[in-house]
Design a protein that fits this description.
7-stranded mixed sheet; 377 residues; alpha/beta; 14% strand; 4-stranded antiparallel sheet; 13 helices; globular; single chain; binds pyridoxal-5'-phosphate
Length: 377
């Protein structure tokens, strides 16, 4: 099987070096291939240390991480869980899988994450938890969320799948809520191909997660709770250890890419740059812009077509959850999500993989500028 890339500049090509190859080969040669492996324990230990939390528990992917996080907090039928309307769909799917109901909340125009003022109005006596998603690498407003959660006695789950190393007021996301989850899918900030991590400072919650990850079985063949096989393999963990050793460099590179995009695009009419609030350190998982068709002269979709022809891959923003067939029956009354809809229709993810060169970033940005000049003659 040869490699044939459709795009000259892909949206998110992972950074992989000799270190990953060597550690994966090492674990294979040592016959550590399942989850029962010192490499999994090492990856968990190092991740917990890097983040500054007590427990890190490796799992098969970021979606099952959310499933276990919800179950470990006791969420199930009859409960409601607040979920931002603009996100990848895993949080909503996993809430439904537990038997609870996702309640969608609009996001903010300023930084695209769940809107604290909307959160308050969606809380009912059935609300058990709030899932915050640090979207496209930008942290949610944690103080406001935590204050509401405390007042109304609900849990906070942070979905950090897109925000490894992002900071809120100088502290890393994933350390604020009752529990947090990460993804190591191929296009995330660090990767294990497929993979995920659950983190918490709560010993009991961590213990429940470990139990359910491993068939709810303790000791062997004795099942104490409903369980799953959501374990990570040694091959993934070995890969992850090598990735984690360069996570700070990878985050630095994301921010450097963002700086170049911002510099090149800042004066382009109709282009709104990826935000970074004064209290935030954004890690720009995918550097993203908003296209205002009236000022720019073309719609977001036309920009995508234009760049596609130049061999530049882009992605539209996520669709609003409330609008999709899978979740339509979850939306009651005449709930409105104007911001989520606006962002979904105007937002564009640009190539952001750490291997992209400075020249390529500048080329993408200049192509967007050139398009604007062409349509305005
Ligand atoms: C990628 C992602 C997930 C899912 O992670 P997987 O490892 O692909 O299952 C969950 N939530 C968000 C916000 C994501 O971006």
């Amino acid at each position: 099987m040869g490699i044939k890339l459709k795009y000259k500049i892909p949206v998110a090509r992972p950074y992989i070096s000799k270190d990953e190859e060597e550690l994966v080969l090492k674990t294979i040669r040592e016959r550590w291939i399942s989850s029962q492996s010192p490499y999994v324990k090492e990856f968990e230990k190092e991740f917990a240390k890097w983040l500054g939390v007590k427990h890190a528990i490796a799992v098969s992917n970021g979606t099952v991480a959310l499933h276990l996080a919800l179950l470990a907090l006791g969420i199930g039928p009859g409960d409601e869980v607040l979920v931002p309307d603009l996100t990848f769909a895993s949080p909503a799917n996993m809430v439904i899988l537990t038997g609870a109901k996702p309640v969608f909340v609009d996001v903010t125009r300023e930084y695209w994450c769940i809107d604290p003022s909307e959160v308050k109005s969606k809380i009912t006596p059935r609300t058990k938890a709030i899932i915050v998603v640090h979207l496209y690498g930008h942290p949610a407003s944690m103080d406001e969320i935590l204050e509401i959660a405390r007042e109304d006695n609900v849990y906070v789950i942070e979905d950090c799948a897109e925000a490894h190393g992002a900071q809120y007021k100088g502290r890393k996301v994933g350390t604020f809520g009752d529990i947090a989850t990460f993804s190591f899918y191929a296009n995330k900030i660090i990767t294990t191909g497929e993979g995920g991590m659950i983190v918490t400072n709560d010993d009991e919650v961590a213990d429940r997660v470990r139990l359910m990850r491993d068939h709810g079985m303790r000791p062997r063949y004795w099942h104490v709770v409903l369980g799953f096989n959501y374990r990570m393999t040694s091959l993934q963990a070995a890969f992850g250890i090598a990735q984690l050793r360069k996570i700070n460099m990878l985050i630095q590179r994301k921010r450097e890419i963002a700086r170049i995009y911002a510099e090149e695009l800042q004066d382009t009419p109709g282009i709104k740059l990826h935000p970074q609030m004064h209290w935030a350190k954004c890690v720009y998982w995918l550097y993203s812009i908003l296209v205002d068709p009236r000022k720019f002269g073309a719609t977001r979709d036309k920009v995508m077509e234009y760049l596609d022809k130049l061999g530049i891959e882009t992605r539209r923003f996520f669709y609003p959850l409330h609008a999709m067939p899978a979740f339509k029956n979850m939306v009651t009354q005449n709930q409105q999500f104007p911001v989520s809809e606006y962002l979904s229709n105007h937002g564009l993810n640009l190539p952001s993989g750490p291997e992209i060169s400075d020249e390529e970033v500048a080329y993408v940005a200049r192509s967007i500028r050139r398009m604007h000049q062409e349509v305005f003659g």
